[in-house]
Amino acid sequence: MSFKYRKIPYWKYIPIIIIAIVVYKLVDNAEHLINGVKFVLSVLSYLFWAFAIAYVLNPLMVFIEKKLKVRRYLSISIIYVLFSALIIFAVTILAPIVINSITQLNDNFSDYVKKTTTWAESKIADFKLIDGQYNLSEYLKNNMEKIIGESQNLLIALINYLFSNLINITSIIMKLILGITISIYLLYDKEAILSTLKKTVYVILKKEKGNKLVDFSKKANEIFSRYIIGKIIDSLIIGLICLVFCFIVGIPYPLLISLFVGIFNLIPYFGSLIGIVPSVLITLFVSPIKAVWLLIFLLVLGQIDGTVIAPKIIGDKIGLNPILIMIAITIGGAVYGVVGMFLSVPFMALLKMVFLGFIDKKLEADID
Length: 368
Prior knowledge:
Elements: H1 14-28, H2 30-68, H3 72-107, H4 109-124, H5 128-131, H6 136-163, H7 169-188, H8 190-249, H9 254-264, H10 271-286, H11 288-314, H12 322-367
């Protein structure tokens, strides 16, 4: 066997060598790589904001175009005038009220704690009739200050968590302004943009695979748009109902409490229960009796929302059982906080659809 004059195709190994060098450099400079990724994501965040704004406002634009039979530029003008008015109202009226409520709550917390402690100690005697062998009244009396102190810490932690991302006003305003500007162009030329993306898909994947990806994108859009838009409307309605109830009953800090209820209602399945905690705690320190009424009202409202309001707005159930919903929320919350919890459910529904489609295809192949 002779290997004489056999030529080794060194040029075939050039791509492998280049890839190896690039991978080595990336691993060796991981810190710079992470900083670079963060910078790119920071720049792209403006596009994310633009896409999110356009995605949320698109159904309203389509509705106006169909119902009023107006041109695209006029429908866009209408929705952005309304959107701008909503932002101005939130910044100039709602935000100062909420900030003032938080300031007052913080300043008066010590007085609230003293009043609540006095009220609780006066009611402890009532427990003696039902204490029995457990000595509940003695336990409450000895640990009341600790219980109230822990409640205060929990409430402050919840408030700080909710508003921690709202402190950097300048960054949010800049992203919002640029996001709105870019979203206008996205909405105005959405057909041309989608057509270009569709052609690109067909060029890269060819017709058969391209059709599958286009069909998948349509189903994904249906799941996300129905869920996201519906959940936002549902949470807005729940927040307004809570605000009306607070004004009627005389619940303290009505706007702050309604904001808690509305925002946490965005979290599926048990978001309404999470919103109850800070709302009832705030009321408890001012008026324990009203806190009980608020607790009962929010529990009833949560049941009505889950069985009547949300199904009417969002439509049919998204097709996930409670276990999958809790898994999705846990993972989403760990990865991206409240926003991750909110978006985790439609993502899980999409994964379930893909998985079931794969299973069905395998079963059909086995039968054939």
